[in-house]
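ARCHIVE CARD
SHELF: 3
SLOT: left
DATA:
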Amino acid sequence: MRAIRGRRGGPACRTHDDERAGETLGPDVLELRVHGVANTPPAQMLDLLPGEVEQVDGDDLGSFWAPTPAAAAAARPPGDCRSAPAGVRREAYSWGAMARFSTVPGLGRVSGTIAGLVRALWVLIIPFGLVNVAYWARDADEPAGRRSSAAGGLVRLFGLTLTLLWVASVATVLLGVVGTQCYGPREQVPLPGGGTVDYVLTCSALPGWADAAARWGVGGRTAALAAVVAVAVLVLAAVGSTGRLRYERRMSAAKARGLADAAARGTDVWPALARPGFWTHARRSAAQWCQHLAAAYALLAGLLAWHFLYRDVPACARATGFADRGCLDPGTWGSGKGGWALLVGASTVLLLLAAWRVARLRVDPLPHGAPGVLPDAHATRGPDVALLVGSLVVLVCALVAVARSGDRPLGAVGPEPFLGLVALPRILVAVMVLLAVVAVGVRARVAARLWAPLVVTTLAAALVAVVWADAAVAARAVAGAALAALVVLVAVASRTRDGRRREGWGGRGPAVLLCLAGGTAMVLSAAAVLGAVAWLEAPGAAENVRTPAAVTDVLDEASAADPLRDAVTVHVPQAAELATPAGYLQFAVASVAVLLLLGAAVLVLLARMAATRRRTPPVLPGDPPPPAPRDAQEAAVQRGRRHAAVAHRAEPVVGLLAALSFGALVAALVLPDPRQTFGGPAGEVWRIGVQWADRAVVTVLGLVVVSVVLAGSKRSLARPWGLLWDLMCFLPRAAHPFAPPCYAERVVPELRARVDAWLGDYGTPLPGGPAQRERRRVVLSAHSLGGAVAVAALLARWDGTTGPHDHRVALLTYGTQLRSYFGRFFPELLGPVALGTRPIRGPRLWAVDPWDRAVPAAPDRLGTTLVESLTGPADGAAGDRTTTSTTASTTASTTTSTRWRSLWRRTDFIGFPVDGYRGGVIDTPATEVDPEAYLLTVASHSGYPRTPQYAEELGALVATLRAARPG
């Protein structure tokens, strides 16, 4: 089969002879182009040179561009794609900087060390962003009540667990390694020339500015390190909140008035993106911010109090059999420990209260409530502020008590120097595993009154099995039974639910995304901890490794080189061997196994593709395979289709990665302690695996740092891996307050305001008065992810004077993922129930054509859809496409015209139809060969506006808009 060309032939960018009515009033149609994930520059979007475009509105982050007067008036040959149709004003909207760049308050776009540190911290909040995506993958239209699955609360609890994991990781490095192992007991050592010196450091790699802490008392130094842990949580929160005012509180005046109109008028059941309050989450994000900080500080205070409560009781250093050894008996603590026990109890209560507040918060509009009731209006921050203040008070009390604890050694007796940091990561991983299991069934609406008791029973029984050895057998049986019942419950519900095949990952999207978030967080956590330990074990400055006999000369040399430095001599007889909590090493081993399995799966997939390299997917799924190519062009096109088909398997590959991540989390709980040794060949394999796993995660950390530096080398605060931020930050920040801000909370109102201004809505003055307002029209032209942005802007306009139906707007998309990805991953937001497009089953991993499955029947719709809002009575305009629509209440058919067109091509690795490969009225296949390239070039994801199909569909939409009249 030959490459697809224009249906009516002609030049690649041929324009139409549009009517020229009203030329004295200027252009009547605005073609507003919106770029996608590639962050296409404005000049490239308009097919012009950089000097031929000018900014007409906006700022450095979001801006509107148009051809200069000279470029617009330039004579061009007929059919030149740089020329807009007669009476059409062409503009480009650039929003990519909002997703890819950041600022530091008070510093602007800095460079150097601060910029590198900020970019590194942006990597750490990637798991938080994935949790936020998982939140919107749940059933957003699920009603509240006794039968609710409480999916939103489940996802937010998972996000809180990630915050606590970050606290545990930082505390492990600063308290469990540096505080207890790098600062040893002070020892007066005589020097050969007379005098003495304190040998207090055992980690020679610590920088010189850390020497001063060696002269402090143990209590004061520990309190200072704990305060640094608290500040680290604040730093992470600040990175995620960068640009918050710019994103979440900027709203066009038209949008604000529209919300007031909708609240006063009442509405039909609208898609989630059209509901008032969807894009405004400032108050609710602030409430979550207080909740997460309160939980983090309560956990830190509890860790400090627990360590000092049991530090001097060697029998209580191990968790196994904790209660059987009398460790819960107040008499075991000894005198003067009641204050520490009180701090432990207060911290536990505050942590549980914070978790309860996180689970109970509602952050998105109610689907079945009063349309004018905005959740933000009911978001009270008083209890959460009080909770944060209470946690701060407890933490300050703990810090003061630690600072006044004296100069006794900080480390506990036993292999684990800081108590509590060994069990905490494993507890958090266990919570993540259980919540991920429940997430498999939340789209099946497994009631929270069923799964919550099973989760609590499993955790409580497992805790009893560890703490009380005498009851371990019975407790393990209870935990196993509760876990088995939970797995059966969610698996059966998910498996038997209708419509799951039309949704991403078989309706298990929340679980997939949570597993990815948990796996990524554990990889980053293990890499940070093990990397820090490896650095601290390395030899440091020369004066830190000299023998005592030469220490006088070394101190004199150091003082002469740096008069402001009072060097602390470090006695290191041999390389330091620092103890690390076993949980991080266990996950490192599991991570290496996951990477090996994933690599093997990719190799198998590539081998299979190589074996079937002569089998090319057809243009339309279900058609016979194309015949052997007859020339170089057909061979190139078929090769492009095969390469695109590999990328079309992204969904099952990501699902496989999520399953492996879940396996790694489980393995971190069941693997033996890496410090144990075993005999035989299996023991040798285990020893080598542990050794190489440690090195592997440290290498991963190094690669991450390098990639972050390279990613931001051109712009000082460019976020690493910009494509990830484009996809991850489209939806509002609703599940984790430290997640990256949502750029669409500014993009959608800003794009909508531009459309409103052109149409003269909400009293916007227009030259020409009411006559000009009556003739104005808009075509939103959106590429790739820009299609989702344009759809959200159109839905946001429903709160205006016209409601859902406005005959003045049309939509032209190309290379978009609305149906195959966004509609399947977020069904209630961008799926068939909201857009009115036909559903599709997911791609198959091993098929030659991943999309060769049949399309199921359309689901029931709750109310008005986007397709219906862009459909009106056909008026015989040139280029009209008609379709027959029926409703459940009547069998009579009416001829209608749809003002939505979309282009796709089989060689596009990330672009798909929005309604169907065949039989629809919206989609048109575009040419698969770049018509303007000098050499033979197979078109993929870009270049749609240069195809003849783009000019044809744009002309058809313009003609339809001009012929339409109010109903």
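SLOT: right
DATA:
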Amino acid sequence: MRRIRNPAAGQSPSPRAATLLTGAALLTGAANYGLSLLVVRLLPATEYVRYATASTLLLTVGTLAGATMPPLMTRELAHRAESGRTVRACLRMALMCSLPCAAAACAACISYATPALLAAIAAASVTMWINATGAGALQGRLRFRQLAMLWPAEVALRGVATLVAVRAGWGGSGAVAAFAIAAGTTAVAALVAGRRTGVTDGAGANRPAADGAALWRRGVTVGVLQSLVCLLPTLDIVVAAAVCAGDAALAPYQALLVVARVPMFVAASLAAVLLTRLAAVPAHSRAGGAHLRATMRQHWTAVAAIAPLVATCPPSLLSVVLPGVPAPSAGLLIPLCVVGVAGATLTVGVTVFLAWGPMRPLLALLVVAAALAVPLYAATAAHLSALAWSAAALTTATAGTVLALVRRRVGVPGAGAGAPLALALFAFCVLWTLRSRTPLWCLIALVVLTAALWTTRPRPRRPGPYRVLHLAFEDPRCPGAGGGSVRTHEVNRRLAARGVEVTAVCAPWAGATPAVLDGVRYVPLPRCPGRLAGNRFLCQLAYFGAITAGLPLLVRRTRPDVVVEDFAAPFSSVAVPRLTRIPVVGLVQWLSARDKAREYHLPFHVVERYGLRSHTTLVAVSEGLAAELRRRHPTARTIALPNGLDPAALRARPGAPRQHLVYLGRLEMTSKGLDLLLHAYARAAELITCDLLIAGDGPHAGHARALAARLGIGHRVRWLGRVNGSARFELLATARLVCVPSRYETFGMVAAEALATATPVLAFDIPCLRDLVTDQVGVRVPPGDVVAYSRALVALAQDPDRCRALGASGPAGVRHLDWDAVADAQLRLYRAAGGDGRDVPGAW
């Protein structure tokens, strides 16, 4: 059996494909409208009545076939390896479904139809189902260009056949037979074109072709679900027509529906593309989430462009498009446009369940909505305004519920609905004030449509290096910079050596200047003015504010392929994915906003929660942190990539004296716990001969010196300042014991470096250090227990043989930490997040 890789796998939704299908749908609608006007002129009144009734029945049959077969074919072709058998099974199903549809259509007009007309209706019903199957074959095999040609080609063939039939004197029966001729011709063409495409090999390609019973069950479920999706936005006019018994007052309402449903044409095209993409990838996959987010962005952009134009259409233009509609009825366009937007949103949302399931809960929801709609619309049918607003409220509530189910199913929220809807409201207000000035209204409408097309244009792949915009927060040159900046620089400089163009944007600090360091371009943001520049906390807040406001400008200047957001104090994340269309990867080395919230009595943790939920791809620097991220945001794709080590740290240093206790890192108390170490050492100082060497700088350096003096250990503590490069490893190698008193860590770079130099570590028993500081290489005591820490200090300082034994096991436990491997894996992740299709393991 021959297999070819599914072309949908690893690809993002194609805006060009959706644009093609949308244009084809609009062209088909316009051609149908023109053909109807032509038939009115060509046929006698009695013949036209028969033709109009039959065409209405066939429209219902075509809607049912189009709602059932293409989604079913797309699912089956993506999930089955034996596509030939699948197509044949679906064709048999289409033929069997077409027979009762043909019988029902013939029975509906048997009282006045001629045998020729009945035969034409039956033939058209059968060929429409086969034509829908052919369209499904093209859609399931990603032949969107041929599919876009199929719809207008069918109308064109029908027009030619209608002219020939009328000229031949066959009347309404001949015009109806044109449906069968056109549908049959395009069905054969579609099936032949689809057969030329290689067999798809999607997410479930190892599964055999479905058995008949299972196919029928899925087909019935898909057909009923899609029929309800099509019916719900039009149920208002169906119920009103039945209640009012064809009252002529409904005519303006019916005519305005033609204009108000324009967003649904676009949504149907987007849903066709989205269904093919989702069906080709596993549920909950990164690629599926990317496809859905991209499609939802296109949907909201289309809504922002089309809905204001439809809702504010000037009466002078409306009289041209829909002649005979009274001017007062134009006020119905606003609620009817809301119905159209809600119906379009419903169409896109339902696609997720068509591709991935389960469909039954959604089917129950739509049945309940339809059941509620019937009495509601019947009660308001006498007042068209009340009917329109009732339809708007019910359809919007149903669409909102479906979106909530989508978010619960795959974790994708409105995907950027806020900004487009705000722009739509603004455009509506502007255009509404210009309704009486048609030329100016047309000019503004053209600007709105042009902006929407520009926004949704596909980004062409440009030549040149792969570009990364890294919102790095901390400059490694900044005093007090911690292990996070070390990781950022070590990875970025290796990416730069591989030809990647990396721009790192950092928070302002005293003496900060733009620079290129090891191939990485560092761009510090502007400093705070005056005395505020010396306040570290305000500089941090200024960084996040500048990122939030200035990210579009940074993106335009650097033109990145991916944006990397480092989580940093005090907010962790400011929801960068909601600020740009560029793919974003979250690099999590800090996740402790709640501690900062308690320290400053500000709701930083609320911002952190919102920012974290905006991300779909997260990199954690330890398995413990990755587990916490998965707990907080289970729908995101979280990958653990630990820090690496400089090979110089692992170099053997025989005979190095080991006399002192060493603390190396940022001089900070909130997370690094330097105050806990000083209190513990004060308890142990009289019992040991080892001095305490403290290396580093940071925001609490002055407080630490004052605390040491207050505790009476100032003469036993030596402050070394910042230690970099090889001197860092030499210092660790001369220590008897390295103290890591952190209250919170995301990885523990100092602990890893100490173990590499064969020095044991004393730490608190916190999650992210348990994997590094095992019982074979160090000692852990209960978190925050100063007394236990002091006792362990005394025991280890007085037992150098035990320290040597623990230290000897250290290098083997961290030898796998390699910066080159981390950089390679992180680059693969960047490319995968940008739709490259390549992937990396879920954990290191």
